[in-house]
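Explain this record to help learners:
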Amino acid sequence: MPHLPKLAIKPALKLTTAALLASTVVGCGLIYKVPVYQGNLLEPAKVEQLKPGLTKRQVSLLLGTPTIRDPFHQDRWDYSASFKRDGGKTDVKTLTLTFDGDSLATIDGDYFKDEPGELARELGRYGNLPREKDKGR
């Protein structure tokens, strides 16, 4: 069996190593990961309108259907949302409303105050939502 000279092996080894290294580096971190919003993204202006004494119907008209409406605790509504950006840690926030009968009693927790506007801008950029100027405003 013929023996290859050492000089012929070195360039081939260098080329193979460079190709493997380049192919692994290309796949690292270059893929864009879409920010993921899930749940109830509440508008700050509507949350600010909440006040004790509102009926369940009024709250539902302001905020929409709660994420969690426990049949065993019908006096508690949870509006929960999660946000994950760039494949990182998921941030979860929950706004909890408790009722005394049909009347809003307490408002506890937190919600994403800035993200609904940010999400609308991002989706508008990709063509999923109409821009304000397109609505004739």
Observations:
- The chain has four helices and five strands.
- The mean pLDDT is 78.
